[in-house]
Specification:
The chain is α/β, with parallel strands linked by helices. Helix content is 43%, strand content 16%. It is built from 19 helices and 13 strands. The strands form 2 sheets. It has a 7-stranded parallel β-sheet, sandwiched between helices. The chain binds adenosine-5'-diphosphate and magnesium ion. The site of magnesium ion has 3 residues, from loops.
């Protein structure tokens, strides 16, 4: 906002049309309003965008938002424009005339919010223009991309270390749905945000039903889960390889499902076409590698199925977190086999990665295996991976609803005694 300073609650209500802040939003917004750096950890769908959009519109100057994906930027900008916010995205897929207009807007201070990819931001021409403007804040969305340990590492994000030198007086706010402490520490140190206020929301999603099953008849199990849980919504089936996504999608189509494969090998046009169909609201199964991820915001994903074990609890939780964004009950199913676990261990052992990196990946894999094999509350187990202690079992995962045969005698006895 270039003219008037406004109150956050006012902006929330008048521009975004929401009556009140949710959870930690208000505290995060206040910190940025005071000019402090902040790190916001909230699950997918938690409402991270408003944590930077609101203060960007309240504070003097233009807000700068760093985002890793063009589709993600375009979505946000389209939404903001509808609300009357002067927002734009600068990326490699702009038409020539769009680009010219954007630079004009930039030079004449007409923008409230500018979305930009990390590699774009650090080009001399853009830095030059930005240094002559007032910036209200710099938001680093999907900030886990800085972490080399993570499952969505982007080398360009590491370069964002320099924004503190380029813009020493502008408050920065980093946001992510990846919650483990290692990623958190990585973000703070890579971005030189050691003094940032850290806001951690609960990652407990009460509408997610977590389930893991040994692989018996994979196809049967997937079809069964889809038939039971998909309804009129969507489903995501995650696979470990591109080839497998194609094969499984074909198989599901044979069985009468509308199923499409998504992986990093598709052309941009194919990807966009698939995303359009996915968002259109038709009942559809997307069989995907983990390339299908950030920015997937269909509210009625009713089930997320893993045909292959994820490499880490963080990846797993972020992937199943794409289910049930509308808050309705949603199912997740993880299929696992002892052979796959042994193979994953073997490949890691053989990998050429540096020793230190290998150890971290091994640690994550072992946590994932332990999570898969746990006979206790799955929700408690996964939240514990993020340092969050759920005081009592969730009551809505497979182990809570159907305690495995190897039940804990003591717990059962306590239940009888307290009954
Ligand atoms: P995230 O980036 O954390 O995944 P988003 O910022 O995309 O989440 O927000 C998810 C959804 O929640 C959006 O549809 C958004 O409009 C809605 N939302 C966020 N904050 C509020 C709020 N205070 N009141 C009502 N709806 C909200
Ligand atoms: Mg987001």
């Amino acid at each position: 906002r270039l003219t008037t300073a406004a109150e956050p609650l006012d902006i929330l209500q008048k521009i975004f049309g929401f009556s009140s802040f949710r959870g930690l939003q208000e505290d995060a917004v206040s910190a940025v309003m005071r000019g402090e750096d902040a790190l916001v950890l909230m699950p997918t769908g938690g409402g991270k965008s408003l944590c930077y959009q609101v203060p960007a519109l309240c504070r003097f100057g233009m807000g700068l938002v760093i985002s890793p994906l063009i589709a993600l930027m375009d979505d946000q900008v389209a939404g903001l424009k509808q609300l009357g916010v002067k927002a734009a995205a600068l990326h490699s897929e702009l038409e020539a005339d769009e680009r010219v207009r954007l630079w004009e807007q930039l030079r004449s201070n007409q923008l409230d919010l500018l979305y930009v990819s990390p590699e774009r931001l650090l080009t001399p021409s853009l830095l030059d223009v930005l240094k002559g403007r007032s910036l209200s804040l710099i938001a680093i969305d999907e900030a886990h991309c800085v972490s080399a340990w993570g499952h969505e590492f982007r080398p360009e994000y590491r370069e964002l270390a320099t924004i503190k030198e380029h813009f020493p007086d502008v408050p920065r706010i980093a946001l992510t749905a990846t919650a483990d402490t290692r990623t958190r520490d990585d973000i703070l140190s890579v971005l030189h945000m050691e003094k940032a206020r850290v806001f951690v929301a609960s990652f407990h999603r009460t509408n997610l039903f977590l389930q893991a099953q040994p692989k018996l008849s994979e196809t049967r199990q997937v079809i069964d889960a889809l038939e039971r849980h998909m309804g009129q919504g969507a489903a995501i089936v995650y696979c470990g390889s591109r080839r497998r996504t194609e094969r499984v999608a074909a198989l599901l189509r044979e069985k009468g499902f509308t199923a499409l494969a998504f992986h990093a090998g598709l052309s941009p046009i194919e990807k966009r076409a698939l995303l359009l169909r996915f968002r259109s609201g038709e009942p559809i199964v997307v069989v995907a590698t983990i390339a299908f991820g950030m920015g997937i915001d269909r509210p009625d994903v009713r089930t997320v199925i893993h045909l292959d074990m994820p490499a880490s609890p963080e990846g797993y939780y972020q992937q199943i977190g794409r289910a049930g964004r509308d808050g309705e009950l949603s199912h997740t199913l993880l299929l696992y086999g002892g052979e796959a676990m042994a193979r994953a261990r073997y490949w890691l052992e053989q990998s050429q990665a540096p020793e230190s990196e290998k150890r971290v990946m091994q640690g994550r894999l072992e946590s994932m295996i332990a999570l898969t094999e746990t006979t206790g509350c799955r929700t408690q187990a996964i939240l514990a991976c993020f340092g969050e202690m759920l005081p009592s079992p969730c009551g809505h995962c497979d182990n809570c609803l159907h305690p495995p045969a190897t039940f804990d005698g003591k717990e059962a006895a306590q239940k009888v005694l307290s009954a």
